[in-house]
Structure formats: structure tokens, C-alpha cells
Amino acid sequence: MISDYIEKANFEDTGFAYTLSLISGKHKMVILYCLMEFGVVRFNELKRYLKTVADKTLSANLKELERDQLIVRREYPQIPPKVEYSLSERGKSLMNILDQLCVWGEENRL
């Protein structure tokens, strides 16, 4: 009975799998958490916060988060170029979940 259910189940079609696909990776959750804590943040500020991330990696993660409508990228037409990132409304809706992950980690850290 349960084995039939498991055989027919498809993890890829779950909301859990979809959410993980949006925030998976080494830096995405940290980027989102940083934007939650500090509001509007520039590229170099994110880079300093993440410390060891390469420019290319950070840029790719930001593009994916923007594509998935979790962050908003605002570019100002000036020299030198100024770009700011902030959470979108959709991104803000994830913050309770990320905050709970943080709380759990603090309470269960070994």
C-alpha cells in the first residue's frame, strides 16, 4: 500500500522541490538573508558580506534570484554605474522560512 504510493510519487512535482530549486546553492539563501537584514544593498557590499565569493559566482546567483523574481535589481544611469539589490514582494514572503532556519540552527548548533 505505502510502497505503491512511494513508487507513484514524484518528488520533482512537490512545492518543497520547487522551493528548494529557487534557494539551493551555496550563496542564495545568504544573499536573501543579507537583503532581509540590510534592505537595499549594492554588489560590493554583498561581496564583502559573503567574503569568499567570486564576482562571477555572485553575479550568476543574483541573476538567477532576479529571474526567479525573488530580488529586484535597480540600475542607475551614472558613471561609475550604480546597481542596488533588494527583496521583491515574492522574496519577502520567503523570509519567515529563512528566519526559522536560522533560529533552528542557533538552537541546535553542536
Tell me what you see in this structure.
With 110 residues, this protein is of the alpha+beta class. The chain is built from 7 helices and 3 strands, in the order αααβααββαα. The protein has helices at residues 2-8, 15-23, 28-38, 43-50, 55-67, 89-92, 95-108, and strands spanning 41-42, 71-76, 82-87. The chain has a 3-stranded antiparallel beta sheet. A hairpin with a 5-residue loop joins strand 2 and strand 3. It is elongated and about 65 Å long. The termini are far apart.
The percentage of residues in β strands lies in: 5-15%
Sheet with most strands: strand arrangement: 1-3-2
Tell me the helix content. 55-70%
Low-confidence stretches: none
Q: Mind telling me the C-alpha Rg? A: 17 Å
Oligomeric state: single chain
Q: How far from one another are the termini?
A: 39 Å
Summarize the helices and strands and which ones pair or pack.
Blueprint: H1 2-8, H2 15-23, H3 28-38, E1 41-42, H4 43-50, H5 55-67, E2 71-76, E3 82-87, H6 89-92, H7 95-108
Antiparallel strand pairs: 1-3, 2-3
